[in-house]
Design brief:
Blueprint lengths: L5 E3 L1 E6 L9 E6 L13 H6 L3 E3 L1 H11 L1 E5 L6 E2 L2 E2 H11 L4 E6 L4 H11 L5 E5 L6 H14 L5 E5 L4 H12 L8 E3 L6 H18 L2 E2 L3 H4 L4
Length: about 230
């Protein structure tokens, strides 16, 4: 992909709103497409209505001079199809961009491939994979559980979970009783696409995080409207 342009719907300096680097200044780069259409997604409208632009890594490195932090999000950075190469472009960004820390926010479908290629090509860089499993029913719970068991002890992987239904809460409680899963790498955040929704779901999220021994993530970008 040398000298290729990266197709993105958003590039902006902001603050990380979620997860282990919450509050840190970052350059956000957003891909358009995702495999899922989650009804609790806070960027679904943006994905559907935004037009992709083309950006060079020179442009992105220029913007990174301010923050030194890169947030790769979406959409889904790991989504590839015949006409969509988010995974390939994300790896290109990670190889070519100059950052102190990068967060790749992913639904986890390609997380094992991400880990493999990061170790092969950019193992010296500070890259965190912020894995947000999508749990729709008992079947998807079991699928995600198997994946979490494989990757959670990798130092690059953090879990970011929105407790939206009983299977998601079941996942949280299952993680909490497995002694060799590092609880400090799990962040719970309230469901919501508006400040009001987030506030209404805070108590439920706090209680579950306290029960399970997990961290809280506040979704600063929605509460304070800076993305």
């Amino acid at each position: 992909m040398n000298n290729s342009k990266i197709k993105l719907i958003e590039v902006m300096n902001t603050f990380q709103g979620e997860g282990p680097d919450s509050g840190r200044q970052m350059l956000l780069v957003r891909f358009k497409r995702c495999q899922f259409r989650c009804n609790f997604c806070d960027t679904e409208i943006k994905m559907q209505t935004s037009i992709e632009g083309e950006y060079s890594t020179d442009q992105i490195n220029q913007a990174l001079m301010k923050t030194k932090g890169l947030m790769v999000t979406g959409g889904e950075p790991g989504f590839d199809s015949e006409d969509n190469k988010n995974f390939q472009q994300t790896m290109y960004l990670l190889k070519e961009c100059n950052f102190e820390v990068a967060n790749v926010e992913t639904n986890g479908l390609q997380i094992e491939q991400f880990l493999s290629e990061i170790e092969q090509f950019v193992s010296d860089k500070n890259i965190k994979l912020i894995y947000s499993p999508k749990i729709f029913n008992i079947a998807s719970l079991e699928t995600e559980w198997q994946k979490i068991e494989k990757v959670i002890n990798n130092p690059r992987v953090y879990l970011k979970i929105v407790p939206v239904n009983l299977p998601t809460e079941t996942l949280c409680r299952r993680i909490s009783i497995i002694l060799d899963i590092p609880k400090h790498k799990v962040y719970l955040m309230p469901q919501g696409t508006t400040k009001e929704e987030i506030v209404s779901n805070w108590d439920k999220t706090i209680n579950l995080a306290d029960e399970c021994g997990f961290n809280l993530s506040s979704r600063l970008h929605i509460v304070h409207n800076f993305t």
